[in-house]
């Protein structure tokens, strides 16, 4: 039974979709421009949200002028992990629209179209809650101007705005991934003064609301939790006739660069983890290039050289909390898969947020 409706903008491979769906949300519109991300999205979500595709609501380019925003089906929650772009400094006070020409402008226009339509016809629903995601440094992007403009813009549209940086490692996935989440709720349709952010999950999956206690209370996890067994990995390697062990040349290059960086006194260079590590570094969209941010130790593994290996795409999926052991599948090449998981949200973080939004703001 669906309890609320949501739209999935800049949808990628559907991290928000899984999280909202798990919490009773029905996806009524999604938008993603990248051909390969669309392939993964449709492959998976045609199973759980078939009407999205049969009804023609899987849009490609959100800036497409043929797309009339007021025709987007009504929804309660808008989700968007949108690209971070600077806004003009023309100044809000002068009444210019600083957001024009950016993708946030399109998010704003979708919300505005619904609010305007509601003024003419009360049957049109106002978007009640907005959930936006971005990189940790978003608040300081362009000296704070980007965040300021977004907050002002949403305030002007009638929304209260709250934001926090959350870390995936506190939500049961062994990845140090910090992302800002902006939650906004419409003053007229959601009578709430604040939103209490979830900062993590305990061993018993209870929500941690105290930011200072998250390191102490969060469930204990290890990188080993998301790794394939040596046997499983070997089976994949045999099946696909490839190896995830990095080449000698690449390994030499990584080691050389590490020494160079160390001499310059900075900590850059490759990072290596094993099953006992508490968490990996952040997987990024460029992981496919050389895997340097997350290498897995292989010393002493029978039949393998001492050089480390990259994550298998299935492990990348697990590192982002995707249900790859049950129904979610990867229909694209390894390189596309790394890019897609690196660009994605960690599902358990958004799922926890979705649960709190449903309880605290939608009163469901
Ligand atoms: C940071 S990713 C979001 C990933 C997503 N949150 C997930 O869970 O996989 C941003 C996405 O926006 C998409 N995008 C960029 N410009 C777009 C446009 N004009 N219309 C639709 N999607 C666009 C990109 O292709 C990319 O997949």
TrEMBL record:
Family as reported in the entry's similarity comment: Belongs to the class I-like SAM-binding methyltransferase superfamily. C5-methyltransferase family.
UniProt-listed Enzyme Commission number(s): 2.1.1.37
Catalytic residues, chain numbering: 84
UniProt cross-references to PANTHER family, sorted A to Z: TRNA (CYTOSINE(38)-C(5))-METHYLTRANSFERASE (PTHR46098)
Gene3D superfamilies, sorted: 3.90.120.30, Vaccinia Virus protein VP39
Record Pfam families: DNA_methylase
Protein name: Cytosine-specific methyltransferase
UniProt GO molecular function: DNA (cytosine-5-)-methyltransferase activity
InterPro entries documented for this protein: C5-MTase (IPR050750), C5_DNA_meth_AS (IPR018117), C5_MeTfrase (IPR001525), C5_meth_CS (IPR031303), SAM-dependent_MTases_sf (IPR029063)
Catalytic activity: a 2'-deoxycytidine in DNA + S-adenosyl-L-methionine = a 5-methyl-2'-deoxycytidine in DNA + S-adenosyl-L-homocysteine + H(+)
GO biological process: methylation
Superkingdom to which the source organism belongs: Bacteria
Keyword terms: Methyltransferase, Restriction system, S-adenosyl-L-methionine, Transferase
